[in-house]
Design brief:
- By secondary structure, the protein is mostly beta strands.
- It has a domain at 11-28 and 56-260 and 346-394.
- Helix content is 6%, strand content 40%.
- It has five helices and 26 strands.
- The chain has helices at residues 11-14, 20-25, 108-114, 241-245, 269-272, and strands at residues 53-54, 60-68, 75-81, 86-92, 117-123, 128-135, 144-148, 151-163, 176-186, 192-194, 201-203, 210-217, 222-228, 234-240, 254-257, 277-283, 286-291, 298-301, 304-307, 317-322, 327-328, 343-344, 355-362, 373-382, 385-393, 396-397.
- A five-stranded mixed beta sheet has the order 3-4-5-6-10. Strands 16, 17, 20, 21 and 22 form a five-stranded antiparallel beta sheet that branches.
- Strand 13 and strand 14 form a beta hairpin.
- It starts with 10 loop residues before the first helix and ends with a strand.
- Residues 74-298 form the P68 RBP/TagC-like beta-propeller domain.
């Protein structure tokens, strides 16, 4: 039996290429924009070589605790610009603001229904450096950050469409929005960007699909996307970042159905319920998912309404999935054991309000992009004055 050779990521993966050299090396003809099948094989190819895996049970350390965002609403997601030392965070735009081109302040209900997002730019200590507004984009469950020189290009959902809030399906006041396409654009401080703006690059990678979000793998130079397929199932795909930028989506490196925690043998539904997916990230062969609900959240389990996120404990779990197989890796034990995979985390458990929101891939030393860490975001603070908190895990397990 032959074994895949471990290939180590280079600085090419961390700092995005630009110019003809990058496109040629990516197997793309600049004149035609077509992909080379020889350079980009089909899913399950040798490009998904063994890669380090986050130790889900490594200690969670406090990186940033309770810092304000541009707006007072709940954090939804975040991503790192590891090349320039910045963090970009997404939230639904707060009510009562009057932005450029608006004749009057817009309510929180309408911001949520329309899919208006606020992007905050932080330094690595959580100090605000800038902001941007996105109108008509979606909910901001995940964003990707692609550094190009000193500029950060953001990958987000766009073309927001109204959907019912899953917690309050009959409450029109709580309707929200989800993006039906992907967008890529540069962060410009103070700018208000509208869906449909001239020059905004938008994509629909899979015909007939919807509900898109994205995350960038900064170690291996890839774009992970999540979408709902024509059958209604959620799918994760991984694409070469250079090809994704050109709109070439025909050669995914991986494509798997989204695993559900409640399908894990012995999952204690009466204790943790069916936790919401709150973020995801990809590094190499592994997909990481963050699930959970805010403290005191309830769900119907059988005939009972059960508190599924007890204060001081919570139901926040981080899970690792092998993209080559679509299975949880390591495999969960039978019966369920919360210290393996999915792994329960009590990070930031002392927050009065604690809701998991987003995963980000942090590279402490750009000269060593293969040594990465995973940050876990938490919304915190009181209603009307929400804050953002990030705890991180640094333990890595090398492939055997």
């Amino acid at each position: 039996m032959t074994h895949d050779r471990l290939t180590h990521p280079s600085r090419r993966s961390l700092i995005a290429w630009s110019g003809a050299g990058a496109l040629t090396a990516a197997g793309v003809s600049i004149g035609t924009g077509t992909a080379s099948a020889a350079t980009h094989p089909t899913p399950g190819s040798a490009l998904l070589v063994p890669s380090p895996r986050l130790d889900l049970n490594s200690a969670a350390d406090k990186w940033i605790r309770e810092k304000p965002l541009r707006d007072a609403t709940i954090l939804q997601s975040f991503g790192y610009d590891n090349a320039n030392g910045h963090i970009y965070l997404a939230q639904v735009t707060q009510g009562g603001l009057k932005l450029a081109g608006e004749s009057a302040p817009v309510s929180a209900t309408e911001r949520n229904r329309h899919g208006d997002l606020t992007i905050t730019k932080w330094d690595m200590s959580g100090n605000t450096l800038g902001y941007m507004y996105l109108r008509g984009f979606g909910h901001g469950m995940s964003i990707g950050v692609e550094p190009v020189g000193s500029t950060a290009y953001l990958w987000t959902e766009t073309n927001g469409q109204i959907v019912q809030d899953p917690v309050y399906p009959d409450d029109k006041e709580r309707e929200t929005s989800r993006g039906q396409r992907l967008a890529r654009f540069p962060f410009v401080n103070g700018k208000v960007l509208d869906f449909g703006s001239a020059g905004l690059a938008t994509y629909q990678p899979v015909p007939g699909s919807s509900t898109y979000t994205a995350s960038v793998d900064p170690v291996y130079g890839r774009l992970a996307i999540r979408f709902r397929d024509a059958d209604g199932a959620f799918v994760f795909q991984v694409h070469d970042l250079d090809l994704a930028r050109l709109g070439v989506w025909t050669q995914p490196l991986a494509s798997i159905r989204e695993p559900r925690l409640t399908a894990v043998p012995g999952w204690p539904l009466s204790t943790y319920g069916d936790p919401f997916l709150q973020g995801y990230a990809v590094v190499g062969r592994y997909l990481y998912m963050l699930h959970g609900n805010s403290y005191n959240s309830t769900q119907q389990v059988g005939d009972e309404s059960v508190v599924i996120s007890q204060p001081g404990v919570g139901n926040t779990f981080i899970t690792s999935v092998n993209l080559a197989t679509g299975a949880l890796d390591p495999a969960p034990p039978v019966p369920f054991k919360e210290t393996v995979n999915p792994a329960h985390t009590a990070a930031a458990y002392t927050l009065e309000y604690r809701e998991p929101e987003g995963l980000g891939v942090y590279i402490p030393d750009p000269a060593k992009p293969g040594v990465f860490q995973i940050g876990m975001g938490f919304a915190s603070g009181k209603a009307g004055a929400r804050m953002a908190t990030i705890y991180g895990k640094a333990g890595l397990i090398q492939p055997s």
